[in-house]
Amino acid sequence: MAANTEENINTKEEVEDSADKALVSPEDLIKHPLQNTWAMWFFKNDKARNWCDNLRLVTKFSTVEDFWGLYNHIQKASKLPTGCDYSMFKDGIEPMWEDEQNKRGGRWLVNMNKSQRHNDLDSVWQEILLCLIGEAFDEQSDEICGAVVNIRTKGDKLGIWTRDFNRQDAILKIGRTLKERLNMPKNCIMGYQAHTDTISKTGSTVKNRYQL
Fold first, then answer.
1. 3 state SS of 82
2. Which of 37, 92, 164, 188 could form an S-S bond across to 62 if both were Cys, CB 3.0 to 4.6 Å?
3. Residues in a beta bridge with 197
4. Confidence (pLDDT) at 24
5. Is 125 helix (H, G, I), strand (E, B) or coil?
6. Residue 52, Cβ neighbours under 10 Å: how many?
7. How far is CA 207 from CA 63, 156, 160, 210, in A?
8. pLDDT tops 80 at residue 182
9. How far apart are CA 107 and CA 147, in angstroms?
10. Helix boundaries (H) for the chain
11. What percent of the chain has pLDDT over 70?
12. Which of 159, 157, 175 is nearest to 113 (CA)?
């Protein structure tokens, strides 16, 4: 009889425990918040529309799980049509030079040739995104605005955008961390370009403000 009573008590405790857990959303229990809220953008090159109309906000996210839910359900960068872009920026910053938090900044630029699109592009883009949401640049992470991947006929481009091209020490530290995370060979040159130089360029190339 005592054994049955103890069994009943245990069962009751388990039921109460389950009831308490049911009051908490499962998502609240398992999701891991990011330091920043991020926004993913998509640009489609439709020449019949102006540039701003071609830029579309996909969604915003602020947890690790929501990032992977998004990343795993959108088209891979390597599968995008030529002329399209993906951008991921901190919430409140739009992926354009004219944005108040971008206009005095620039970008570290990684160029990839056409043969690398199907072998390397997606893994490099993913690593860049993980650097951003994981605040991989330590105290320089506040300088980060976002990242862009451009799918182009002559070769794809990936860029990490920063706030102020005059902050040389912070920019160089970001660049070194990026090269390390991407396992780029030391003899592979990566350049940093100011947005103002890109806007005012007269030829096909832009002079690097810094390079590693």
1. coil
2. 37
3. none
4. 53
5. helix
6. 10
7. 37, 18, 17, 9
8. yes
9. 9
10. 2-22, 26-30, 51-54, 64-71, 122-133, 168-181, 195-199
11. 85
12. 157
Q: Please choose, from the candidates 70, 50, 46, the residue with its C-alpha nearest in 3D space to the C-alpha of residue 129.
A: 70
Amino acid sitting at position 98: E
* CA 55 from centroid of its chain's CA atoms: 16
Quote the tokens at residue 72: 């795993």
Contacts of residue 40, defined as CB under 8 A and 6 or more positions apart, other chains included, come to 57, 58, 59, 60, 61, 70, 74, 86, 87, 88
Whole-prediction pTM value? 0.82
The CA–CA distances, whole Å, from 67 to 36, 38, 133, 156 equal 12, 9, 9, 23
Average pLDDT rounded to a whole number, residues 191-202 = 89
**Cβ contact 211:188 at 8 Å:** no
> What distance in Å separates the CA atoms of residue 74 and residue 84, rounded to the nearest whole number?
14
